[in-house]
């Protein structure tokens, strides 16, 4: 289990290193909001993780990065589910909706209530041969 987590952490570090500082800054500016908070904003597109991530914050950052690339200012998280990273190791996938809000519309800081709370198992119980 420790080996799998170490590999996932290294992959995350390497993948984050492929992003420019400007891209990281743009992703960090995207504001997480509730659906009611983006009324009057323009829907741009649905955004989804391209694959599972080892942590919810990593999956969330990926969504924000995608939203930033589309020119969005806000993100409404919609769904979270587990998917296999490896044969036994599970990760999380998030999907959401990207919006562009004009000045004066939408929240100006992240709404913690808009962040999906999702606890997921690290290993698939059906494939967990270590604890059998």
- Could you say what the CATH topology is called? Translation Initiation Factor IF3
The amount of beta strand, in percent, is 15-25%
The largest β sheet comes out as: 4 strands, mixed
- State the helix count: 3
CATH architectural name: 2-Layer Sandwich
Strand order of the largest sheet: 1-3-4-2
Low-confidence stretches: 7-16
CATH class: Alpha Beta
Organism: Succinivibrio dextrinosolvens DSM 3072
Keywords: Signal
Protein name: Lipoprotein
Signal peptide: 1-21
Descriptive account of the structure:
α2 (about 20-30) packs across α3. The protein is globular. The chain is built from three helices and four strands. It has one domain: Translation Initiation Factor IF3 (2-Layer Sandwich). The two termini are about 15 Å apart. With about 130 residues, it is α+β, with helices and mostly antiparallel strands. About 30% of the residues lie in helices and about 25% in strands. Strands 1-3-4-2 form a four-stranded mixed beta sheet, with helices on one face. A hairpin with a 5-residue loop joins β3 and β4.
